[in-house]
Write a structure and sequence with these properties.
Keywords: Lyase, Pyridoxal phosphate. This is Cystathionine gamma-lyase. InterPro entries: Cys/Met-Metab_PyrdxlP-dep_enz, PyrdxlP-dep_Trfase, PyrdxlP-dep_Trfase_major, PyrdxlP-dep_Trfase_small. Its EC number is 4.4.1.1. The structure is a single chain. The protein is globular, with a radius of gyration of 21 Å. The protein is built from twelve helices and twelve strands. It has two domains: about 5-245, Aspartate Aminotransferase, domain 2 (3-Layer(aba) Sandwich); about 245-370, Aspartate Aminotransferase, domain 1, CATH 3.90.1150. Strand 5 (about 165-170), helix 6 and strand 6 form a beta-alpha-beta unit. It has helices spanning about 5-10, 55-65, 75-90, 105-115, 155-165, 175-180, 215-225, 235-245, 245-265, 285-290, 305-315, 355-370; strands at about 70-75, 95-100, 120-125, 140, 165-170, 190-195, 205-210, 270-275, 295-300, 320, 330-335, 345-350. The strands form two sheets. It has a seven-stranded mixed beta sheet with strand order 1-7-6-5-4-2-3, sandwiched between helices. The protein is an alpha/beta fold. The protein binds pyridoxal-5'-phosphate (PLP).
């Protein structure tokens, strides 16, 4: 992590203290309110729960501090993604999406943007630059892509997209603001499913949109207010709490993933392993240049669907679950979610367990596949 990322992390826990009055609670209070005391003219204070809420403001402030940008909170990652697409695109526009990214983003475009007259194309992440961006209003990238962990050169994509007068959105879910900084690399907008590592405790769905462009932020805020896709205050409070330990959790998860990916790659049962942090991985050189860390996701193939299921089920320190980024190590055989991957393809999300104990459990479960 760079010095600035560390100083941002250090300041995070003290952000609220600037405004403290004597006797204020140091942790964030939870404000459960749909209405506020509003005598006289409407200006400068909270009015109604669909417009604003002090607990969201606190989590948006904290996320904005980490992103170094304006931030808007949403009730899920898809809530954040759909708000960006619906607020910024209109009939006749063309949008480009990753062919190998999170499946719901493509499904949303196919099923809902297309009928509104927005043309949608897809392109694989490893060759995302090929063909240029002529004719697009908005380009949406995901790097590393979920689940295969291919990456694209975000700065080069941003330059090429801007040369065509289009906007670049990057889904930064797999990396968090500590692991990769798409806005610093030139992206106009970051979207994130904070359901994953940002909240980190697998007990909330949440998302955010970050941008340094105030016109974009105003449009997305207006969309949120009119469409009503607002986060609940309690969820915002939980995410604020999760954020306070994100740096510690993310550091542990990424460090453990680096150790475990190396060992997994050398295990005879494991094939086609992908981890951007491994020497020799197709993503490695670019990952070193554009990512602060290599992340906590590892993907690989086992010989069959059954072996993949057995590996996950028989590992004492692994949960069989979709999603990723929680404190518990979890894994999923992704073909069951409709990703175009072989039936023995596993996406592994390294959690916060002590790494040697975790590795022993993983190795034992792999060794059992031979029997
Ligand atoms: C999970 C995920 C989403 C969607 O997030 P939800 O909170 O489930 O709506 C979007 N993008 C990526 C890369 C994801 O992994």
């Amino acid at each position: 992590m760079s010095e600035t990322a560390k100083s941002r992390a250090a300041a995070l826990a003290h952000l609220r203290s600037r405004d403290f009055a004597k006797g204020d609670p140091i942790p964030l209070p939870l404000t459960m309110a749909s209405i506020f005391h509003t005598p006289g003219e409407e200006a400068g204070f909270d009015q109604y729960g669909r417009y604003d809420n002090p607990t969201w403001r606190a989590v948006e402030h904290a996320l904005g501090h980490l992103e170094d940008a304006h931030c808007l909170a949403f009730p899920s990652g898809m809530g954040a993604i759909s708000s960006v697409l619906f607020a910024l695109l209109k009939s006749g526009d063309r949008v480009l999406l990753p062919a190998d990214g999170y499946h719901a983003t493509r499904a949303l475009a196919e099923r809902f943007l297309k009928p509104f007259g927005v043309a949608c194309d897809t392109r694989p992440t490893p060759t995302f630059l090929d063909g240029g961006f002529d004719g697009y209003r908005l380009v949406f990238a995901e790097s590393p892509s979920n689940p295969r962990l291919d990456i694209c050169d975000i700065a080069a994509v941003a330059n090429a997209v801007h040369a065509q007068g289009a906007l670049l959105v990057v889904d930064n879910t797999t990396m968090t603001p500590y692991g990769q900084r798409p806005l610093d690399l030139g992206a106009d907008i970051v979207v994130s499913a904070d359901t994953k590592a940002v909240n980190g405790h697998s007990d909330v769905l949440f998302g955010h949109v970050a941008s340094r462009n105030t016109d974009i932020v105003a449009k997305v805020r207006d969309w949120r207010e009119m469409a009503g896709g607002i986060p609940g205050p309690f969820e915002a409070w939980l995410v604020h709490r999760g954020l306070e330990t994100l740096e510690v959790r993310f550091d542990r998860m990424c460090s453990s993933a680096e150790k475990i990916a190396k060992r997994l790659k050398n295990h005879h049962a494991v094939g086609a392993l992908r981890f951007p942090g491994l020497d020799g991985d197709p993503s490695h050189n670019l990952a070193r240049a554009q990512m602060e860390r290599f992340g906590f996701l590892i993907s690989f193939e086992l010989a069959s669907e059954q072996k993949a299921e057995d590996f996950i089920d028989n590992c004492a320190l692994m949960q069989s679950a979709t999603s990723f980024g929680g404190v518990h190590t979890s894994a999923e055989r992704r073909s069951k979610r409709g990703d175009a991957v072989p039936s023995g393809f596993v996406r592994l999300s390294i959690g916060c367990e002590p790494v040697e104990e975790l590795w022993q459990a993983i190795e034992a479960s792999l060794d059992r596949l031979d029997g």
